[in-house]
Amino acid sequence: MNPKLPYVLLVGAAVIIFILSCMLLSRGGRSPSCESQPSVVEKTGSVSQSLVFADLTAEEMSQVVRYLQGHLGVPLVEASRAKPSDNCIASVDVQVPAKAEVLRFLDGGGARPPREALAVLYFGNQPEPNITEYVVGPLPAPAYHRDVTVQRYGGKVPYHRRPTLGSEYEQLRVFLETKAFAAAPTFLREVLEYDGTNVAFQTTVPHGFQSGDRVTWFVVFQNVSGFFVHPVGLEVLVDHSSLDVSQWAVSRVFYNGQYYRDMAQLESAYVQGRISVEKVRKAAWDGDFSSMKPRAPRAAPFPVQFEPQGPRYSVRKNQVLFQGWSFAFGMSVSTGLRLFDVRHKGERVAYEISVQEALSVYGSNCPGGMSTRYMDGSFGLGRYTSPLVPGVDCPYLATYVDTHSLSDSLRPRKRKASLCIFEHNLGSPLRRHYSNLQSLYYGGLVNSALVIRSIATVGNYDYVWDFIFYQNGAIEGKVQATGYPSSSFLHGDGLRYGNRLWEHTLGTIHTQFFNYKVDLDVGGVKNSLVAHDMAFEMTRAPWSPEQQIERPRLTKKVLDTEDQAAFRLQSKMPRYIYFAANSKNKWGHQRGYRIQITSFAGDHIPEASSMERAISWARYQLAVTRRKEEEPTSTSVYNQNDPWTPTVTFADFINNETITNEDLVAWITAGFLHIPHSEDIPNTVTVGNSVGFLLRPYNYYDLDPSIYSHDGVFFTSEQDFTACEINPLACLPKTASCLPNFPPFTYDGFRNM
């Protein structure tokens, strides 16, 4: 053998390795960027038509404010500085036109309804202080205003029902720190190490026990990150019913299981040594155990989704188009995310789908906790919609939409990226079958759906609101709860009302209820409500009469009245309940959309409670009523501060009217019980804390519409399933081997706070 041959082979191998390495490196260096292809979105509907539902622009809000300032004949104080005895604009929102007007415009070629705003004003500087609601229009150049308060609520709205402005809470904070606390300097200094900056207050609602009360427990916490789980044992009851701030007073004080007449009595008892003191260890500014700062070093990045050829949906002003779906979206200052004119394959299936309310009822052996019943709509689910963090709150490459609101101010506020829209590959098949009998084939469809999302942060809780659109014609409404648990100071028999989360922290038991309005228009405005279910019947086997068979059979019932269509929380509801159209599909069945609820709700509150009627929507997992313009919402923002004489009582909507072949609305309630536990520290996760509903086509189509999806996969054993023209999945190395363009990370959540 030639002695040089091994060296020649080694040199040749090295050259080959070098060439291959260069090829791989150069190939990696030339990885193409993903490029958007011409949109395949079906052009359904008109952007100009969808604008009939559009939120007010910042300029329109400002126009309304200027008009009111110049035409009401009374001084209006900036709400952020207003005293209870002042007049101010509490909020300005769009006034959605009446449904009949909108449908004449959308479907009948009628005139566009005038664009109007709804302005809520607090008149504290009047002989009879009151809340007044005005419709202002036409926009963008207002020329008239109408007082619609009596029309909407059947009478004037008393001033004590007003939702609390931020300015009033600021005045209450100043009162507590400068007047109330001044009466107990020794106790505060020695027990709380109070320095004027190291405590935070959390409000409770409702304010008292009867109509007219405005008396509030304020729970004191350490002023650290995640303060909601750092109670110090002190709670103060403030009577702020007077419109004169100088007349506000402390009504009661609670500390570590004992009640005192006021802060002076607490101070006296402490100085005399008659108090059982539980001194709480001072937490670091980051909250220590409540800090959300990661406790592990960064590792490999988490998986991300991208669209190899760009988004397959479009967002044009307030309209979204996706795979045969189209809808208009908006953000109500009080109720948050809402959709209008929802269509599939060009046909309207829902006129409105909207959040109505989020309710929490707490238990505790501390006064603040045991008296808390939060109706978050009164604080503002839209007002407290928070800016979204790309990559966590929504996929990094989602489409982010800015929203505007005007509340507690004379100037509109812009919330950057407070709503997101994205297509989501759920990582599972929407449908599939692998056949290994008779013929050999595989058929399937990836479950890729469109999501529109907002997240409202109301105090300690964060609510993730989703509406999801599937390729089979189904719509899902879902809410996930996260944020911090509310807590009380652990003392006495506290463990009857929750679990211990830290040394002095009791995670307090509470319910969560969420209410939605679903105005389905299935095959037209007029629908009926039909229930299908199953029952077993006993029969003899025809081929063997001596044998008996228990066979399921279909049961059918038309629910004729509102009373029949009101299903209490714990009652048995038909498993298939649907809005039926006056038309039939190819197979002779009434076309319909089924309502399917995912909920773990228990009792909302005993009906004997003096405040139950204010939240009577929560009696029902589902209630279907005739649609009425005078019943636009299941509750009112004014119910929170006067639940004993509710401004809107949902139970009164249900009065046994006929609901056959009528324009109907479904009011859906979903909820769960939350008993905070140690894994809620540092804060609560979304897993397991998700409820909602599905709207599913039921004989609406002649077959599953997703069979027409461009994403379908089918191949047989006899085909070359590695060929791109046979199997689209085989195309992915070519069509999806690109680098997505990730824009620089930005976040505007801390601006203009």
Automatic annotation (TrEMBL):
It holds the Pfam family Cu_amine_oxid. The keyword Transmembrane helix applies. Keywords: Copper, Membrane, Metal-binding, Oxidoreductase, TPQ, Transmembrane, Transmembrane helix. Residues 76-144 form the Copper amine oxidase N2-terminal domain. Residues 305-707 form the Copper amine oxidase catalytic domain. It is an enzyme of class 1 (oxidoreductase). Its cofactor is Cu cation. Coiled coil: none annotated. Gene3D superfamilies: 3.10.450.40, Copper amine oxidase, catalytic domain (2.70.98.20). Its EC number is 1.4.3.-. It comes from the Eukaryota. The modification 2',4',5'-topaquinone is found at residue 461. Topaquinone (TPQ) is generated by copper-dependent autoxidation of a specific tyrosyl residue. One of its GO terms (cellular component) is plasma membrane. GO terms for molecular function: copper ion binding; primary methylamine oxidase activity; quinone binding. The chain crosses the membrane at residues 7-26. Contains 1 topaquinone per subunit. GO terms for biological process: amine metabolic process. PANTHER family: COPPER AMINE OXIDASE, RETINA-SPECIFIC COPPER AMINE OXIDASE. Belongs to the copper/topaquinone oxidase family. This is Amine oxidase. It comes from Sinosuthora webbiana. The lineage of its organism: Eukaryota, Metazoa, Chordata, Craniata, Vertebrata.
